[in-house]
Amino acid sequence: GAGVSQxxxxxxxxxxxxxxxxxxxxxxxxxxxWYRQSLGQGLEFLIYFQGNSAPDKSGLPSDRFSAERTGGxxxxxxxxxxxxxxxxxxxxxxxxxxxxxxxxxGPGTRLTVT
Amino acid sequence: xxxxxxxxxxxxxxxxxxxxxxxSFTDSAIYNLQWFRQDPGKGLTSLLLIQSSQREQTxxxxxxxxxxxxxxxxxxxxxxxxGDSATYLCAVSGANSKLTFGxxxxxSVRP
Lengths: 114, 111
Prior knowledge:
Strand content of chain B: over 45%
Distance between the termini of chain A: 37 Å
Largest interface: A-B, 25 and 26 residues
Number of helices of chain A: 0
Distance between the termini of chain B: 41 Å
Oligomer: heterodimer
Shape of chain B: globular
Radius of gyration of chain A: 13 Å
Structural class of chain B: mainly beta
Number of strands of chain A: 10
Number of strands of chain B: 11
Order of helices and strands of chain A: EEEEEEEEEE
Structural class of chain A: mainly beta
Shape of chain A: globular
């Protein structure tokens, strides 16, 4: 079956612009996660959604970052007024549920802020 | 705060060698541990998931063990091949469901 998909695969933007990154989880997976992978910080958690519950936003680095999940499926991560330190690979994952379940990752979106 | 350590950061071995990759974590209150493989410029591929109640999991030439009380996991790769060259990451999940990752071990298998 189809895995987690993300778009775009690459995004180059100018400092100060807003960007939107999209994630399509595996069908039937109720949990969706966003992580960021950067050279200096490794892989770090950003936010997760589980069903209709309020998202856990505890990993978002600043209020310039936000995410939504529409209809319990597709998710969009939005970064406003991008900064050079936002350059990283943004990875999305989904799972059948929280905590005990295996997380499956998409190919990522490489964001470069110039 | 959970911390995950993988040492060494890089490893180079000749083809055919059996090898062990180590992972340690500071908080033993985990729900599960996952081993991932990452090829350059690609996403993460899940290799094995070990639940906190389990001691090991096997898939093909891969075997992962978990000693929760001592905060350690190992990934054993039998008869390594050049195609095994990649970065291997371990990650633990706690009650908060977030994965905490190690920095990874970059493995190079020489033909």
